[in-house]
Amino acid sequence: MDSVKEPAKVRTTRSIGPLRTISDVEALERIPYDELVPARSVYDLFVNTAAAHGGRPALTVLRSPDPQDVGLALNHRQLLGEITRAANLFSSLGVAEGDVVSIVSKTHEQIPALIWGAEVAGVASCLNYMLTAEVIAELLRVESAKVLVCAGPELDPELWSKLRTVIGNVPTITSVLVLGAGADPPHTAVIEATAALARQPSDRLIFSHRPTRETRAALFHTGGTTGLPKMVPHTHGNQIHAAWAFAQAFGITEEDVGLNGLPMFHVGGTSTWGLSILGAAGQIVIMTPSGYRDPEVARTFG
What we know:
There is one protein chain. The protein has a single domain, classed as ANL, N-terminal domain (Rossmann fold). It has about 300 residues and is α/β, with parallel strands linked by helices. The radius of gyration is 19 Å and the shape is globular. A hairpin with a 7-residue loop joins strand 1 (about 55-60) and strand 2. It contains eleven helices and eleven strands.
């Protein structure tokens, strides 16, 4: 079934062949799972794609609906480096296994690597930036957030104004990592993300903890239609299997490019249209920080 042979130790989650009949499914099920999916953590997925297809395009982030307005373009080797930097930064800020890094932002250029770096060092919690200040504060308290990542006034003045009222009401927050310049610290240490990331090594993890399939990787909140949104945990194993299963179902390989206009605070943006493609060594294109909420994206789509 496997049209492109990859060494087992660096196997990506790419589709190993078309699933057209029940016989194809049965043949797939006869292969031991650990042979199909050797990754033990989300970090392993990025290590494997970098080893197998390091020079292929991985992540492109558009600043605007203009497809030529590229803010960031990374291959798989570079993406692994940025995720490593992010994990090291969070570790330097005291994040350890089980500690929550809350990310409240549109999908600006550094957000994807910060999300997956948070999963490596601790637990990433992606919150809907459109929630009210009161709800965001309550969710941060419920999850005992240790580090808050957000866009600052240069990138999103409306969000920063809202979050300034939140930070002082969440006693567990020890650091606020801000994207862009101009942030005035309200009650706690504010760190400019770009400079802080640049000080971290990109070729190795500086901490000893390594997540496993059973380690909690992320928290995603529900819609909140019956009250305060509930926090739903994902393990590394959950996310690895979702990436692999989507790749098998949709035939995703390193040749594929996905246009991702879904928010990263939702599993659709991070897993369904994120890790499923990146784990197969394909490429995702983030269609503006606001995704499909930007009306110009629909007008220029295709």
